Amino acid sequence: MKKNIDSELRSKDSSNSFKYKPIRLNKFISNAGVCSRREADQLIKLGMVNVNGKIITEMGHKILPTDKVKYDGQTIKAKKPSYILLNKPKGFLGMSSGKTAKKTVQDLVNIPGSQKLTSIGDMGRTVTGLLILTDDLSLRKKIIQSKKGVRMIYKIVLDNNITKSDIDIAKKPHRIFDKEIQLKDVSHVAEATKKDIGVECFNIPPSVIIKLFKKINYTVEQLDRVVYGSLSKKELPRGKWRELTSKELNFLQML
Question: Distance of CA 188 to CAs 3, 4, 6, 185, Å?
């Protein structure tokens, strides 16, 4: 497991370039903050949206950044979606819902409109590590519902040494929160105590990992997500964030 983690901490593409491509009209309207994509579809069907002076009622219609879009007579300004990778520290809450709370991960991202960013998956205050925040709700939905899933590696510290037999039990299928899940791999971390383990899985959130080990009589004292798909914490200190590169974003969009 340590070898797998180390291999993920190599240098990544440092380019932060992002170029607009043709985009569906409903997504453009949603990204601009007018309404949801579903609501945008209704506006388009009702003939309330025009592009370059022409009313569009076709579903799936795509536009370019140079196109002029109007809704109800008002020009809709293009807004570039934000894609943020955060190395979350303890004490901050990562929520995928729109609920309000004190000390959320949005408070760590000092850009205009950061409070509108949504985390892809929840992450409790005691959990640390990689978390993606975005206002692109279609990408968030795509990742969460992906059948292939996003590969994740967690570094975990338990309350007691874990035995080889219990590691084998942890790797078996388990029913957690009325859903059957299975970890891809569980192993002791090299040159660490027997309390330290690495867990490799696909699209399994921290709360489920914690519940699984509680089921086999271990308490998770520390849980740190060190790998998220092709992303690692390399050159991203705890509490810091950066924008995803175009290469990293393209990888997520291929799920």
Answer: 11, 12, 14, 10
Residues counted in the chain: 255
Cα–Cα distance, 164 to 200 (Å, whole number): 16
**Residues 146-198: tens digit of each pLDDT:** 888 899 999 999 999 999 999 999 999 999 999 999 999 999 999 999 999 99
Write down which residue in 41, 75, 109 finishes a domain: 75
17-43 pLDDT per residue, tens: 344 578 899 988 887 778 878 889 999
CATH number for the domain harbouring residue 121: 3.30.70.580
Could you tell me if 178 and 201 lie in one domain?
Answer: yes
Cα separation, 210 vs 193, whole angstroms = 19
Same domain for 158 and 223: yes
User: The domain containing residue 59 runs over which residues?
Assistant: 23-75
Which of 140, 131, 83 shows the shortest CA–CA distance to 105? 131
Contact (CB, 8 A) for 226 and 130? yes
Decide which of 75, 101, 135 is a domain's last residue.
Answer: 75
CB crowding 7-32: b at 16 or more within 10 Å, else e? ebeeebeeeeeeeeeebbbbbbbbbe
Closest among 138, 108, 127 to 204, alpha carbons compared: 127
**Structure tokens, 109:** 């991202």
Give the E-state strand segments of the chain in sequence order.
Answer: 23-24, 49-51, 54-55, 62-63, 69-71, 74-75, 83-88, 118-119, 128-134, 151-158, 174-176, 179-181, 185-188, 196-202, 220-228, 231-232, 241-243
